[in-house]
Amino acid sequence: MSVGALDGLRVVELATGIAAPFAARLLADLGADVVKVEDPQGDPLRREGPFRSDDSAHTDGGVFGYVSANKRGIVLDPSEIDRVRELVTGADILVENFGPGGLEERGLAPALLRENNPALVIARLSDFGQDGPDANLPASTLTLQARAGWVSARGGASSPPTQVGGAYLDFIAGTYLAVGILTAVETARVTGRGSDVDTSLLECAHSTTSFPVLTNGVLSRMGRGPNSPGHVLLGVKPCADGWVGINVLTGQQWRDVCSLVDAEEYADKQDALRTGGPDRVGFEARVDAWLADQRAEDVVELCQALRIPAVPVYDGASIVRSAQWTEREFFTRAGSRHGEFLHPSFPWRLSGSPAQWHRPAPRLGEHTAEVLAAPWPRRLPRAVTPGADPQRPLAGVRVLDLGTFWAGGACGTYLGAMGADVVKIESLQRPDGFRFNMSGPALGPRWYEFGRFRAVNLNKRSLTLDLTRDEGRELLEQLLASADVLLENYSARVIETLGFGWDRVRDINPNIVMVRMPGYGLEGPWRGYVGWGNAFEQVAGQSYISGPPGGKPQTPGGYTDPLVAMHGVVATLAALEHRRRGGGGQLVEVCQIEVGATACPEPVIHHSMTGEIRHRVGNRSVSAAPQGVYPTTDGWIALSVRDNAEWNALLEALGPDRFGDPDFATPEGRHAAHDRLDALLADITSLHDVAYLTKLLSNNGVPAAKVAVSSDYLQDPQLSHRKYYETFDHDDAGPDWYQGWPMRFSVGPERSHRSGTPTLGRHNREILGGELGLDDDELAALEQNGIIGTVPTGLQLSPSGSAEKG
């Protein structure tokens, strides 16, 4: 078998559940040796979900099997601290999710663990981070989602706020944690010092939201109201044989949809319909009538022919029958014991050091004797790189960033934040389309510098090149010759059309890592389809399990975009590590719909193991009752009761008088009586304001949170303490607040970002003149011929007033 990109890396996992173990599994997939340490009862996730095993003493839940594949497993009693310390002495990485101070309480303080292993990376995942005023508050997935703005009325203003279904947040958090781990490994490699990677689930959720503070500020400047996920056009719609997602982004797409559904009279009302109102109701009725006789597959083909991002909305059964997923052989049984269940494969494909299935998830204690009889040898002190700066662990790495929109842009933004020299390349003729999202001429002559583009292009230099012409291509070739990474996320055909497919790039620079992030993959019948985050959530199964019971599927909100970016970072750092060990350059493919399915494995696993379709459950949970979102005098509150201790705490806070029914005394009884409990709770919560109730319940030990909106984020005391939002100036737009990363490094970058977003072409002269040696006459000729410049060409306005490229 091929050597993995992270071969030789040693990981100790002291974590349960999904998020932190998933981070460790990503490392294991890439070749790291991961040892999962469990107590004699085992990870509780083993006992959750559908089971299928001949040995009832070792039954593994399907999701446990998915997140724990490729690992070795041992059992150690919690009191055997010395043995844990001995194991960690030979490790590179320790992964834990005990909560704030949990390591210290167990006698495993980071300083103690590093006495004999100073370069040890300790990855710490918790609800709110290791410190801050709310670090020790109780929380559930629902309350974390609520506080981060994920819980939303996606079905429109009349719909109650609903959480995102499944364990999406856990898989997102695990990916961010893996990014933080590999970053800290880079820091340890050059400085010899290990770092605590303090990662917050709340901040992971915030990091996927579509820049609400910045976005609403821009919309306000344009005289428009706040953006709302409930007003996405068109979203999930019913067809004759199922559901389809139609996701309009540009003015041209909107006009084409109106023509397709015989509703041309709405072609100039895109912005008006986005904000709701009676016209929205009439338009929706027109669309529904047209779709009623259409097959979803036919609608997708019609829309995609017009370059409209439309996809089927798949469930756990239909997704594995899809032609695209089938041809790419993405779903597999290779990681499950004896082929027991079907599950997603890897979220990336590395040509030179591919991810591989080595072993299924371990049975409880399966490798205890093997590991303890031959522990890893103690790590020798690392050689320190002279002059290494822990603030810039990726210093010396040159990245050419052809990425567009959110997924492509954010990948380069993170690498730049960690010290890489990231050169953002656009053309004047077709700049990054994200420049025209949530922006418009009402902002002034340089309006294309004001929109959400700024949020995903910090920490970069900006260069313009027209790659459709020989002069531009020749300059890119010169830059490629000395680059370390080339990033792009065009649809699959574009980069080859420009003449920079992998074979050509490799000829120019055999040591380069080329990271391609196409929406639907480089092969398959959907290779040429267009899409963005909402579409990827719909086709990957996430939308089908989100929404109220019996209602239509709801799209989370494009969280796949930043998730794709972070998987791009994981794959890039792994490929650079492989190259550092003499492996050379390679092609990395990060297929965006496959990333989405990797973070939503439950529907496929559930159907594979039971033959049943996993449906929407709204705000309910199998592990909590009551759990829901309830009205208050000034908003909504989310709360969860997961056991009798939290139930008694809720009674103490709200008074036991209304909850005396004996059916409520046990978790089983509360689940059975959930509807009655919801009504009783709503009667009480509707009498109080949300701040009072949140404080009352949280202080009593009940997970509770306000269903936050964008105006709450800058006032969140936990985010403020951890300096999650940072301000940066912009030459045209001025100062604004920008979201940070959800990881804090004890040794490493002290801030999330190093610099603000540059204006278009700001560094043309610095790069082409100062680095490639072009003189003033040559630069002037390039500018005169439109090869380089600072102002887009060919801008036009759609009838709705929004801007797009002609």
Keywords for this entry:
31 helices, transferase, seven-stranded mixed β-sheet, disordered C terminus, formyl-coa transferase, domain 3, Rossmann fold, single chain, CoA transferase, 806 residues, alpha/beta
Secondary-structure map:
Blueprint: E1 10-14, H1 19-29, E2 33-38, H2 62-67, E3 72-75, H3 81-89, E4 93-96, H4 102-105, H5 110-113, E5 121-126, H6 141-148, H7 168-191, E6 196-200, H8 201-206, H9 212-221, E7 234-239, E8 242-247, H10 251-260, H11 270-274, H12 278-291, H13 296-305, E9 310-312, H14 323-327, E10 331-332, E11 343-344, E12 349-350, H15 368-373, E13 398-401, H16 405-417, E14 421-426, E15 460-464, H17 470-480, E16 485-488, H18 492-497, H19 502-508, E17 513-516, H20 533-539, H21 560-583, E18 586-589, H22 592-598, H23 602-610, E19 627-632, E20 635-640, H24 644-654, H25 667-672, H26 674-685, H27 690-699, E21 704-706, H28 710-713, H29 717-721, E22 725-728, E23 736-739, E24 743-745, H30 764-769, H31 776-784, E25 795-797, E26 803-805
Parallel strand pairs: 1-2, 1-4, 2-3, 4-5, 5-6, 13-14, 13-16, 14-15, 16-17, 17-18
Antiparallel strand pairs: 6-24, 7-8, 8-9, 10-11, 12-18, 19-20, 20-21, 22-23, 25-26
Helix pairs in contact: 1-7, 7-21, 16-21, 20-22, 21-22
Keywords: Transferase
Organism: Rhodococcus chondri
Family: Belongs to the CoA-transferase III family.
